[in-house]
């Protein structure tokens, strides 16, 4: 076992590590520009458990090994979720106004509890989640997706992060929680900001909590069929504060992870040859693409944290009672012990730690998957000819302690008219579902040409407008009858597969 020297507690928020200190910062230029590269440096220097410094040079341990993360998350008797055990809180190293305070400050939440109290609080959350109408959620996802696409579909170009990925999860979660009227740009930005360790994180946290306290008060007075009402009325008897805190937990966890997941899946579909070739050819489903992304680019790169109950050992390092440990999700997913070939397909393998593990594993992960699957499917249905508008190497990211966020995903496509989103989802005939033709440039292939619509002959029966229908854009591609020639990349059974997939979706399967 080794015991690396950490900086002296209380040495100052931006003090440099002492000479010879092996710990690396998880904030600052290196961590923000290339967090994955930093994790690999730490693995090479220290192995599966590495000493690191949080904002203000607060010491902690980053767990990089897959098996070590599983052991830590599955053994609350050794590694507690109760942040009040953290020695840095008691000696003043991590003060109440620390930028990460919204993440680590103890609150009456299931994520900060162990044992019977954890079971009581988490039981209320999981019961409320279990009562969500998943078929109804899919309809909301589809409707909100099409509403977002309507805002830019006539432009022929868009940023899919700022115009789609960042907004869809918040719209859906606000509906699930019971506060669709509270959805606005400020709520979106506050949700992003409060876990980033910024100077405004505490202010953003207070804004979100003010919104949620108002929701709890309304539902106490007049319950409805929504998540907030079920949580407030659960037999576990949560207080108003406990209800509001758990609503924030569900909202922020679902929003941040799903927004990042949607952006990362879209990027990989547009840039990775494995997805471009297989997805467009009908051999890879969107759920499979989502799972591959959860391995390669998990929505949360790390989670703070666990706190040592007593002196112990992990990964050959001596851990002292009260030490903070960080669940290294991205590092564990890249552990060469479980994944020697980073380029290999992980199809059918859900052993990733994208949603953590053990008794605190994310209970709402299937909602996030549903939002990503259904939302991206709706987007590609509306805009099947998406192309990346820049070289992949020009894409920019912003990293923080817990996540690595794609800032923009600029795309081009043939302009199309808006669709009516007031009726049932997919109200248009399913026989005309277009084939996804994701075709982005390879590095060095030059500028992206403007996408050109490829009109097909319109059947005579459709030559006159139908009363009450949406106006038709002459430049938009016209969908062929089922008897039309099948695109080369599609197998003969693809139309039948499309019908079956649509039928399963509509039935909620």
Concise overview:
The protein is of the alpha+beta class. Helix content is 40%, strand content 9%.
Q: Can you describe this structure?
A:
The protein has 509 residues and is an alpha+beta fold. The protein contains 18 helices and 13 strands. The chain has helices spanning 29-33, 35-46, 66-74, 87-90, 101-104, 115-130, 134-150, 161-165, 168-177, 185-193, 201-221, 227-232, 240-271, 273-280, 286-296, 329-333, 365-382, 494-506, and strands at residues 24-25, 49-54, 58-63, 79-80, 157-159, 303-308, 312-314, 317-319, 324-327, 387-388, 397-399, 404-406, 410-412. The strands form four sheets. The chain has a six-stranded mixed β-sheet. A hairpin with a 4-residue loop joins β11 (397-399) and β12. α7 crosses α17 and α9 packs antiparallel against α13. It is globular, with a radius of gyration of 24 Å.
List the keywords.
six-stranded mixed sheet, 509 residues, globular, single chain
Secondary-structure topology with pairs:
Layout: E1 24-25, H1 29-33, H2 35-46, E2 49-54, E3 58-63, H3 66-74, E4 79-80, H4 87-90, H5 101-104, H6 115-130, H7 134-150, E5 157-159, H8 161-165, H9 168-177, H10 185-193, H11 201-221, H12 227-232, H13 240-271, H14 273-280, H15 286-296, E6 303-308, E7 312-314, E8 317-319, E9 324-327, H16 329-333, H17 365-382, E10 387-388, E11 397-399, E12 404-406, E13 410-412, H18 494-506
Parallel strand pairs: 1-2, 3-9
Antiparallel strand pairs: 2-3, 4-6, 5-13, 6-9, 7-8, 10-13, 11-12
Helix pairs in contact: 7-9, 7-17, 9-13, 10-11, 11-13, 13-14, 13-15, 13-17
């Amino acid at each position: 076992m080794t015991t690396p020297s950490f900086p002296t507690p209380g040495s100052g928020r931006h003090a440099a590590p002492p000479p010879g200190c092996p710990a690396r910062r998880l904030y600052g230029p290196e961590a923000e520009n290339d967090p994955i590269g930093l994790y690999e440096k730490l693995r090479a220097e220290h192995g599966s458990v590495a000493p690191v410094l949080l904002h203000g040079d607060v010491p902690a341990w980053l767990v990089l090994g897959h098996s070590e993360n599983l052991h830590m998350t599955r053994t609350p008797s050794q590694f507690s979720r109760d942040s009040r055990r953290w020695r840095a809180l008691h000696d003043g190293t991590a003060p109440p106004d620390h930028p990460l305070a919204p993440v680590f400050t103890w609150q009456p939440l299931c994520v900060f509890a162990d044992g019977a109290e954890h079971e009581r609080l988490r039981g209320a959350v999981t019961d409320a989640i279990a009562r969500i109408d998943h078929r109804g959620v899919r309809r909301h996802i589809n409707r909100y997706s099409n509403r977002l696409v309507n805002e830019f579909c006539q432009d022929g170009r868009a940023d899919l992060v700022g115009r789609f990925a960042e907004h869809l999860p918040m719209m859906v979660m606000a509906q699930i929680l019971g506060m669709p009227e509270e959805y606005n740009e400020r709520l979106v930005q506050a949700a992003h900001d409060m876990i980033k360790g910024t100077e405004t994180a505490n202010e953003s946290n207070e804004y979100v909590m003010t919104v949620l306290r108002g929701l709890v008060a309304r539902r106490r007075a007049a319950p409805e069929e929504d998540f907030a009402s079920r949580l407030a009325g659960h037999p576990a008897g949560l207080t108003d504060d406990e209800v509001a805190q758990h609503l924030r937990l569900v909202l922020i966890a679902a929003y941040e992870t799903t927004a990042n997941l949607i952006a990362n899946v879209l990027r990989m579909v547009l840039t990775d040859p494995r997805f471009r070739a297989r997805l467009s050819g009908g051999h890879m489903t969107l759920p499979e693409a989502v799972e591959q992304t959860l391995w390669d680019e998990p929505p949360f790169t790390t989670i703070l944290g666990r706190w040592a109950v007593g002196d112990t050992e992990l990964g050959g390092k001596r851990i002292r009672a009260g030490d903070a440990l960080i669940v290294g999700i991205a590092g564990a997913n890249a552990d060469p012990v479980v994944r020697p070939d980073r380029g290999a397909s992980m199809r059918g393998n859900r052993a990733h730690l994208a949603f953590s593990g053990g008794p605190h594993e994310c209970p709402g992960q299937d909602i996030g998957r549903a939002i990503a699957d259904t939302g991206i499917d709706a987007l590609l249905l509306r805009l099947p000819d998406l192309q990346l508008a820049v070289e992949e190497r020009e894409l920019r990211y912003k990293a923080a302690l817990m996540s690595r966020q794609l800032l923009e995903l600029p795309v081009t496509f043939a302009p199309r008219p808006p669709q009516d989103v007031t009726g049932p989802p997919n109200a248009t005939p399913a026989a005309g579902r277009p084939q996804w033709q994701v075709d982005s440039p390879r590095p060095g292939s030059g500028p992206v040409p403007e996408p050109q619509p490829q009109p097909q002959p319109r059947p005579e029966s459709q030559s006159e407008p139908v009363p009450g229908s949406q106006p038709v854009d002459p430049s938009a591609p016209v969908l062929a009858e089922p008897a039309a020639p099948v695109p080369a990349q599609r197998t003969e059974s693809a139309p039948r597969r499309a019908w079956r997939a649509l039928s399963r979706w509509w039935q909620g399967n």
